[in-house]
Amino acid sequence: MDRQVPCGCSALRRPPQGSYSSLVWPPRPSGGGKPRICESQHLEVSLKETDNDACSLVFDDLSPGEMIQVKSYLQHNLAVPLVDAPEAESSDNCIYSIVLQLPPKAEVLKFLDHQGPRPARQALAVVYFGHQKAPNITEYVVGPLPDPTYHQDVTVQKYGGKLPYYRRFFLRNETEDVYSFLKNKEYPKAPNFMDKVIDNNATNLIYTRGMPPGLRSGDRKLWLCHFQNVPGFHLHPIGLEVQVDLRSLDASQWKVLKVFYNGQYFQSMEELESQFNQGRVKVVKVKKAPSDGGFSSLKHRVPHTGPGPLHYEPRGPRYRIRNNQVVFMSWSFAFGMDANRGPRVFDIQFKGERIVYELSVQDASAIYGSNTPASMLTRYMDLTFGLGFDAFTLIQGIDCPYLATYLDRHYFFDSAVPLTHKNSICIFEQNVEMPVRRHFDRAQHPFYGGLVDSILVFRSISTMDNYDYVWDFMFHQNRAVGVRVYASGYIHSSFYFGDASEFGNRVEKWTLGTIHTHNINFKVDMDIGGTRITVLLEMNLKWACAVLSICTIFFILVWVFRSGGGKPRICESQHLEVPLKETDNDAHSLVFDDLSPAEMIQVKSYLQQNLGVPLVDAPEAETSDNCIYSIVLQLPPKAEVLKFLDHQGPRPARQALAVVYFGNQKPPNITEYVVGPLPDPTYHQDVTVQKYGGKLPYYRRFFLRNEIEDIYSFLKNKEYPKAPNFMYKVIDNNTTNLMYTRGMPPGLRSGDRKLWLCHFQNVSGYFVHPIGLEVQVDLRSLDASQWKVLKVFYNGQYFQSMEELESQFNQGRVKVIKVNKAPSDGGFSSLKQRVPNMGPGPLHYEPRGPRYRIRNNQVVFMSWSFAFGIEAIRGAHVFDIRFKGERIIYELSVQDASALYGSNTPASMLTRYMDIGYGLGYNVYTLVQGIDCPYLATYLDRHYFFDSAFPVTHGNSICIFEENAEMPVRRHLDRAQKPFYGGLVDSVLVFRSITTVDNYDYVWDFMFHQNGAVGVRVHASGYIQSAFYFGDASEFGNRVAKWTLGTMHTHNINLKVDMDVGGEKNSLLANDMAFETVKAPWSPEDKIHRMRMVKKVLDTEDKAAFRLHEKMPKYIYFAANSTNKWGLNRGYRIQIVSFSGDHMPESDPMERAISWGRYKLAVTKRKESEPVSTCPYNQMDPWTPSVAFADFINNETIVNEDLVAWITLGFLHIPHAEDIPNTATLGNVVGFLLRPYNYYDDDPSMYSPDSVFLSSEQDPNSCEVNHLACLPKVAACVPNFPPFNYEGFQNQTMQ
User: Fold this and answer.
1) pLDDT value at position 1058?
2) Number of C-alpha atoms within 13 angstroms, CB side, residue 1163?
């Protein structure tokens, strides 16, 4: 199938028409007018062929015709009668499944790579032999296809022996027989109980099975848990469980072994009836659920209000599919779906080179704990149920993008004939609205280079009774392959009685959400450069994303628009009324608003007139002058703010915090002033001692830009002339061809200003062009004429001065490496595109305009509202985060980003960057439309007074947008008596800024989800910091160019989360799991390892401080004093995703300055005196830190207090060849989620207007029933893309 389909920018196309599910519908034609259809680009795709067929067919799933041929062959050649599985009794012979038998790898590679013969195409058939003297399971390889002539029993070869019959999985027919056995034979033995307690009417019960069926090998003793038969029945247990002995192949011999009801065990249904009639049964009469399930229904609760963002392909898809092969840009692979194991891909090649031979799901397990027998026993191994067979029809616009390509799959699995699951795979290109790499350089010749992360996704979704697993195999443009697994669906519940709270949380009156684990196993057969170094990985995931960073070269592809004729209809903007509370004609959010340029100017003017000393503008200031370094907002005390926001109190005074460098005083110092009230200040208060416990010595000041230029001039004009031969013959110095990085902190002890400067060639991407020269300069004197060189380093040798270097060089005693001159664009470090532009990938647009509103610094999106800002020092922060009008978070803010390096060169081995010293907020610059953020995002300016004479504006340096993640945030397809589907696409609001701190770019995302969760995500890109490659350099990183070492380093990021969950006063609680060994209550001679909850109150700061690599409870949450309707503490859980390297040893004299990095999570009592975890002065004097976070943790009680969580995220980075020219954001991402945990009574996303519910009793094509059916009409327009505009090279405008 070659796919040549026009894209849907003006009319959404439909997937292939299917008949498998009544829930699949063809979208209606668009209405009104005839807009221009987007043209489809014709991408030539090279697909190698052998014998007129693609090589990928070696891996292709069996066709229905082949399955029928195998069945027919076995019926004629096994010499025993075979009954079709749907009619088979357990005592019959039947074919259970027929799947593809993969050929041996050696044969496949000989065929694919060496023109060898095509491997025989074969099937693997699983046959249940119930009608033999020794019933067994046998596996046969049948071939060759399509006309088989042989079959081979491979059972012993595969498993080391015959497979006993009791290992067979239940046929659907057998399962129905079990249910009939209960209804027709057992329930009548307890008529009063079943009538008066259960209201049994033969149709109102449904069951789940506790697996495995027994406690020892050979058992088939199955526990069946009873539920009310309504949609979402998994949440409606009634307390009755029955254990049935199914060992006999004669169903008439089946018998009940045990009965469990509401904590009591009985030997039989008769005993249950007898005890009930005698009043000895503890009866709980469960209220009959409504026919739609009531609280378990996935029906939408609120009307639809209009579509969110959609993606479309302006020139059609950029991938092609033929048979089972996909080609996307430089990628190609073959795909398939194994009925048991699920999705798999083969022969993954990039640029024609095989990277992965096989990437496949192996199994998904779920292990439960409870006080009911079925759940305490349950250990699901889902491949048995059929991870592939249970992949059913996908819903456009929820499960996959509306415009994805949908494909059918065919199975012979517990069936009489092949079954087709329509539209059960989707393939699409996804624009993840994130640069895969980017850098903005502000050096002598500013430039920007970037690439949006546009990836190919191969997706299927397995519905395993209650749970739905979303499987994504992803192919990125930087040669990385990703695997991502999401879980949704219904929880598995049990009846709530007795000590049930030890095994989960109460989620409804008689429903326990049972504790459990999920584990997923993958096989990854990598062939890196050939099979001789094949790596076979068994990967176990616990909801983790496996990212395989593969191969060598960073490949850049950029796609552009094609013009087209006609005049399309432009999408209209919807007018969304947004309620914004006002006080004194202004939004409450202005309490947190960044200073305006006018306010900054007023503060500067006030200080000039009232400090009583001359102030020089920072850009002209010498180190011996007085100057204003920065002016930022001074946040009011929280108590004052809450009194104003919540209790109609007075508006807090608006104030600024000014940092003044007093170089022209005795002694010189740094002083911080609070200045107010704004806009017309009348007072200033020195708060330095109050904040830091003492005066700030002048050597803790950060370098002014003017001072940096003086240092460079000092080297060029005073020091280089002392080594003229060396600088000319080795360095080719011409005063303009050198650039520098600074090793920080500047020295080895408090009071030092001894700065190492590392020299690079002055070209684009200079960070990866070291020349081997480093110079240490003593800058302690405020008189630049007194500065001096302390040490010189070149290619592994140290010298006392430039004069000594020159002398040694002239004597031939210097080991010289003549580095080739790099081209002006940097050559290998250039971010210029390497290939021509070819056409755009998927783009984001909003058919009815944005669904969020921004006024001043406040954002409203659906049920969310928050205030935002960017502080010059610390960067992005948001305040007063509310969901449905309730404050969840008072403050969420970046604190610092550190990078600790290791090398054999002095500058790098010393370097411990603390980026707030550079200004995480001030270094937020213009964002590039379509790369850094979606083209149609909202872009906002920010204003700063930071090492400047006047306020400086960074245009378009924040973006806000709604992102369609092309993923259901929740979904379930139910195939019970009345099939239904319910789902909601994950459409989130993103608040983004990007900080460029010299070489590195940090992408900061604060995300607001429709289920009440707040996410923080940080990506890293930019250039690596390198050192000169010499000596034992390979001990400190990887060689990435001839004379360039990619130096190993750690990144750590600290954030502050001041949560107010149900009010200011919270406690910190922890839940985790443990296994306990207990006697099986129904079989005391047997023991079972039962999972249970472990609950703790973390009542002191010491207990709530978790070291970086210390084991931490899986569930940690801020708990309110209030409870939900089930008596559980309302809470918000902290869920961290981080891959930190080791923290600096605490014995290091610098460690206290970054002591926040000791802890992945620390929760402290909130204090106005502890507003931040660090400060910029720590960068210049880490040996005597002005703020030491470790001092915050002093074992104070944190029960029922205003609490703050300090979260550290990080990763170890050992640079490699693919970091040239630029580090990719992919894989370099960390973050955390703040998720409701019993805060609500049910899932808040059920009240999203985007919810979709389809059932077999409704017409899914109706707009009244399903808003997705209206998309072809609603989205029948062309997005209004404004002209591209970038002013990043001119945007630092003075106000």
Assistant:
1) 98
2) 27
Measured at the CA of 348, the angle between CA 346 and CA 354, to 5 degrees, comes to: 120
CA distances in angstroms from 698 to 626, 752, 782, listed in the order given? 11, 11, 10
Separation CA 994–CA 1001 (nearest Å): 7
Write the secondary structure of 673-732 as one string of H (helix), E (strand) and C (coil): EEEECCCCCCEEEECHHHHHCCCEEHHHCCCCHHHHHHHHHHHHHHHHHHCHHHHHHCCC
429 within 8 A of 841, measured Cβ to Cβ: yes
CA 521 to chain centre: 19
Bond from prior residue into 1182 cis (ω within 30 degrees of 0): no
For residue 767, how many C-alpha atoms fall within 13 Å in the half-sphere facing its CB? 27
**What global pTM score does this model have?**
0.93
Rg of the chain, C-alpha, whole Å:
34
Sheet containing strand 1044-1047, edge to edge, reads: 1026-1028, 1044-1047, 1037-1041
Residue 892: other Cβ atoms inside 10 A: 24
Question: Taking all residues of the chain, what is their mean pLDDT, rounded to a whole number?
Answer: 90
pLDDT classification of 17: cutoffs 50, 70, 90: very low
Statement: residue 561 has pLDDT above 60:
no
Q: Give the model's pLDDT for residue 1276.
A: 66
Reduce the DSSP state of residue 852 to 3 states and report it: strand
Q: Are 869 and 594 in contact (CB under 8 A)?
A: yes
d(CA 145, CA 120) in angstroms, rounded, equals 7
- Does residue 1081 come out as left (phi exceeding 0), alpha (psi in the -120 to 50 range) or beta? alpha
* C-alpha to C-alpha distance for 918 and 260, rounded to whole angstroms: 66
Cβ burial, residue 643 (10 Å; 0-12/13-18/19+) = middle
Read off the amino acid at residue 565: G
Residue carrying structure tokens 């991407």: 765
Q: 1140 pairs with which residues across the strands? A: none
The DSSP line for 506-565 is: EEETTEEEE-EEEEEEEEEEE-SSSGGG-EEEEEEESSPPEEEE-SS-------------
The set of catalytic residues is: 915, 1000
Provide φ and ψ at 767, rounded to 5°: -60, -20
- What is the C-alpha to C-alpha distance for residues 1163 and 1070, in angstroms, rounded to an integer? 12
Is the bond preceding 1221 in cis, omega lying within 30 degrees of 0? Answer: yes
Contact 1291, 954 (CB under 8 A): yes
Decide: 659 and 773 in contact? Cβ < 8 Å: no
**AA letter at 165:** Y
Is residue 549 within 8 Å of residue 380, measured between CB atoms? Answer: no
Cβ–Cβ under 8 Å, residues 118 and 111 = yes
DSSP string, 614-653: ----GGG--TTSEEEEEEEEEPPPHHHHHHHHHH--PPPP
Of 686, 599, 1140, 632, the residue nearest 874 (C-alpha): 632
Could you tell me how far CA 793 lies from the centroid of its own chain? 43
* C-alpha–C-alpha distance, residues 1059 and 1166, integer Å: 10
Q: What angle do CA 1024, 1026, 1030 make, to 5 degrees?
A: 150
Region of residue 849 (left: phi > 0; alpha: psi -120 to 50; beta: else): left
Give the span between the Cα atoms of 716 and 737, in whole angstroms: 11
For residue 148, is the peptide bond before it cis, meaning its omega torsion is within 30 degrees of 0? no
Q: Are 169 and 97 in contact (CB under 8 A)?
A: no
- Record the tokens describing residue 713, joined without a space: 């001039």
CA atoms within 13 A on the CB side of 1120: 23
d(CA 864, CA 892): 15
Tokens of 1262: 């109706």
Interval 994-1013: pLDDT, tens: 999 999 999 999 999 999 99
Cα–Cα distances (Å) from 491 to 12, 379, 476, 488, 512, in that order, read 35, 15, 33, 8, 10
